[in-house]
Amino acid sequence: xxxxxxxxxxxxxxxxxxxxxxxxxxxxxxxxxxxxxxxxxxxxxxxxxxxxxxxxxxxxxxxxxxxxxxxxxxxxxxxxxxxxxxxxxxxxxxxxxxxxxxxxxxxxxxxxxxxxxxxxxxxxxxxxxxxxxxxxxxxxxxxxxxxxxxxxxxxxxxxxxxxxxxxxxxxxxxxxxxxxxxxxxxxxxxxxxxxxxxxxxxxxxxxxxxxxxxxxxxxxxxxxxxxxxxxxxxxxxxxxxxxxxxxxxxxxxxxxxxxxxxxxxxxxxxxxxxxxxxxxxxxxxxxxxxxxxxxxxxxxxxxxxxxxxxxxxxxxxxxxxxxxxxxxxxxxxxxxxxxxxxxxxxxxxxxxxxxxxxxxxxxxxxxxxxxxxxxxxxxxxxxxxxxxxxxxxxxxxxxxxxxxxxxxxxxxxxxxxxxxxxxxxxxxxxxxxxxxxxxxxxxxxxxxxxxxxxxxxxxxxxxxxxxxxxxxxxxxxxxxxxxxxxxxxxxxxxxxxxxxxxxxxxxxxx
Length: 510
Hints:
This protein has 510 residues and is of the alpha/beta class. It is 46% helix and 17% strand.
């Protein structure tokens, strides 16, 4: 047993998991007991519950794949309806609904009717449509000019710049990450954060409790608070069954003084800067934003802080007047997440709109490729239109089963002319897309069901910014060290195919 797994087993998380399993055992025990003492009543109840679950699934607004999958599961007596009740639908409590209403009243702000809006519509209707759709889906998204965006093609380069920027903080620092682990990267940042706290800088930190389950001690927030950092876990694991665990905080956001922000695929752990090797060379990327667009990152952080903590006195106190930065193009930071916080799959629709409007090329990197029928068809249609569509996935996987499912998507895409590459030096964790040298997306959103449906995510849509050229250069360097996959290159055995098909069938539930 590995050190991480042993630490998990012996921690409070292991205790919580054990309690949840006991709860499940008791539920099934009660159901089994009822079937013995009152079999007729039990059969009637099981039938009524199954019918009610089927009706709920049919009437629910969800993708056809998810409906079919849940309907199949529901036909398993007792287990199916119970599984759907636990994981199939996220229903907010009255308290949560009240918080959501208050959150929207606080964060909804009047979007500036910027002069370029009509000008962009006249000059580039395609760009106008893509951006306008994003603004409608995410009420807190906004278009920013006068910004400076810097692209990092490695986690190492991004980390070095983060340290320099942290040292210059004067007012506040916000951190929101999926994974944090003690080591060179985080320890070097923590040392600066402690210095800043001593200087009177406010430091708030959110990290996902499940994401850090095997990387941090269960009481690590106490450790951070003792050092003056107001730290909290997102979706704290407690010993009870709840659907909330399905909605994890997969964002990576760092905000400094409302002037500088970072995002991308890089978490705060040493493998992301290749100080340790887990799956060959770890290829990642990120983005640094300097200027007014950082306000959007501040809002994203405070929204999740409020969702998690239920407390924010004044959002505007962190929207400081910051210095504008020169530069061409537009920058639109945005969030994506589960219903009902987000009514639409923002991350997925942004990808679809970009792919559907492409005329020259679409390049994508993603560590996982588990996508639904709609997105698959959009990618295939782009290739059949003559667009050069290329997707890069890892050659060295972090999860072998996920790579098996990812490779299962290759044949359908290859048949339409999509070009698939596998990054041979190791594991590529970058989540980025470039389209026609005019648009780019850099953020935390993987091409899989978890990122596109269940997780809280964030990204930045860039339009005609100088940093897009650096992203294009990064793609060219990635292609040079990656091997292209052709039909027949990867021939899975029959049992691998079976595992892949079964897993893909239930992927919408993952």
